[in-house]
Design brief:
The chain is of the alpha/beta class and 277 residues long. It is built from eight helices and ten strands. Strand 6, helix 5 and strand 7 form a beta-alpha-beta unit. The longest helix is centred in the N-terminal third of the chain and has 26 residues.
Length: 277
């Protein structure tokens, strides 16, 4: 079960949908919901927290940031109360990326929104979902910018390639899979993954999930396009409401760079995606 769910809280257009998804999951799993709003300034600047002196130049610059965070937390509190979940609001004196990644280490699941080019500054903004995924060691549910209504028992597609990242994603998603309508485990074969190898793993994977009360449908496909779009197309074909997959970092800059399939899914998904690294 998810016992602690962390959700990113801000004033973006996508925040209400993100918070409702988090609250719905908290209600289903009887979890404690933590809403974290970021001050927006590195904790290195205010290592002991932010406290301004009225009338100072410092206050004129930083107080509006603090007020925005508190306004966002008030919105979070209202949604959580409406959905009747145990919750707490956290004002975090840090930037969004590091602050959320640090706090995520003490949660079972983190809920963020997909990057939205209409709200971000492409040349300056950190890609928050991938940063949290690669720097917190926790599964992250990324709610798409289409802002779908939360689903209590969605059909779920699980991407499987036998890697440690895929294994972590499956394990991390077990609480979600136990409440799914149906679970389909899909292996996309190709030059790097032979169908015979996938077939040899199916029994062990089915037994592992079966011990958690999950009876998956196993599916093997030879994609005719890149893996990321093939997974998204398959999820749409099956009518799945959530995709589960491992997230891959590449090269020495792995804390900032994702592999092709991960990046494609994070950019183009129109359903929530649970990723683990």
């Amino acid at each position: 079960m998810f016992k602690t769910i962390l959700v990113h809280v801000d004033l973006s257009a996508h925040a209400p949908a993100r918070m409702r998804w988090a609250a719905t999951l908290a209600h289903i799993h009887q979890a404690h919901l933590v809403g974290a709003a970021m001050f927006g300034v590195s904790r290195a600047i205010f290592p002991l927290g932010y406290a301004s002196r009225p009338g100072t130049l410092e206050a004129s610059y930083f107080d509006p940031l603090a007020q925005n965070a508190r306004r966002a937390l008030a919105q979070f509190d209202e949604i959580a109360r409406q959905m009747q979940v145990a919750h707490e609001a956290r004002f975090v004196c840090d930037q969004a990326d590091d602050g959320l990644a640090q706090l995520a280490r003490f949660a079972d699941l983190v809920v963020v929104s997909q990057d939205d080019p209409d709200e971000a500054l492409p040349d300056l903004a950190v890609h928050l979902p991938e940063y949290v995924i690669l720097n917190s060691a926790r599964p992250v549910l990324v709610v798409p910018r289409t802002d779908p209504a939360p689903a209590a028992n969605p059909d779920v597609l699980v991407a499987w390639d036998g890697s440690k990242e895929a294994s972590r994603a499956v394990s991390a998603a077990v609480p979600l899979l136990r409440h799914a309508g149906t679970v389909t485990v899909a292996a996309l074969t190709g030059p790097d993954l032979a169908a015979a190898e996938v077939q040899s793993q199916q029994a062990d994977l089915q037994q592992f999930l079966g011990r958690h009360g999950i009876a998956p449908r196993m599916l093997v496909r030879d994609p005719q396009q890149d893996a990321g779009h093939a997974l998204l197309d398959l999820a749409a074909e099956l009518g799945c409401g959530v995709l589960v997959m491992g997230c891959y970092g590449h090269g020495k800059m792995r804390e900032l760079c994702l592999g092709g399939a991960s990046r494609t899914v994070l950019a183009d998904a129109r359903i929530p995606v649970l990723l683990a690294h």
